[in-house]
Amino acid sequence: MSIISKDIQKAVVLLNNEELVAIPTETVYGLAGNIFSEKAIKRIFETKKRPFFNPLIVHIATIAALQDIVAEVPEKAKLLAETFWPGAMTLVLKKHKNIPDLITAGKDTVAVRIPNHTTTLQLLTQLRFPLAAPSANPFNNISPTKPEHVAHYFKDDIKMVLDGGACKNGIESTIIGFENGEPIIYRLGALALEDIEAVVGKVTVKNKKEQNPDAPGMLQKHYSPLTKTILTSTVLNDIQLYANKKIGVLTLSSSYKNKGIKSEIVLSKNNDLQEAASKLYDALHQLDHQKLDIIIVEKMPDVGLGKSMNDRLERAAFQE
Ligand code: TXA
Ligand code: MG
Questions:
Q1: pLDDT at 163 over 70
Q2: What is the pTM of this model?
Q3: Rg for the chain (alpha carbons), in Å?
């Protein structure tokens, strides 16, 4: 029997019993457990093979619930929360004393967001606790944007994937921390930098590990297909360079179909970055399952969600 199900009540029962359930959000699927259950939280790290130094995001249903998660909310954080929640933005704030150290990897801050997905919001309102949920993929793999991706990754290791369809945004939330009350971007994501700056003015981006040792998830190699992946602005050159290989190509809108390649996925014929972002991970999943020698990915335009996509693609293509 498939572990994929639309039954919210079943998810409630499992989570109340300290089990894990994969949940849909507008960004990517999360692997969720009760933040106050040590058993559930340890299972999240084990199932993902995630190192304990990498903290988790807490998911809540309302801004009112924030008071039990964080100790203080800077003015600009309040403004961002009111503008973008429910939505693809995670805030890193001083933690409430009741938040377990396992969630925050011992840090004095906690990451929190209200996801914009009806199914998961319904689920959260039926629980008496918030959900910790990292992306539902094994450590360093591509994040899941469809229930099938999660089932494929974990098979019988989890009891249920709550089916909420394909993720609308398809790329992880934008993470924002605060230094002296000023917002700092720790991870570019589904909420574009320009949209954030329209609300709080110019913000600093520290999304590289060396710029911000406080964001432990910002590894250089991450979100990676198992197939060798390269990121390039000159796709045709690279197709010629690897002419004797089985090549898969991933582009924004151009086609290289008749250039001797094995397969191709075009993300958005109309150059729509929102559409492209929503399809990006699914395309990488598909290409990764095609037994190719190499995946050649076209660099996205360096604006809006293109910036966030390039961040993920650089990590996917990173060679040690
Ligand atoms: O869109 C998303 O954010 C998805 C969905 C499921 O909500 N979740 C997600 O979680 O991407 P995860 O665990 O894959 O990424 C969380 C990131 C990690 O890079 C982690 O290091 C960072 O958030 N993080 C968590 N708590 C933090 C903290 N207190 N300070 C700095 N970074 C933190
Ligand atoms: Mg992740």
A1: yes
A2: 0.95
A3: 19
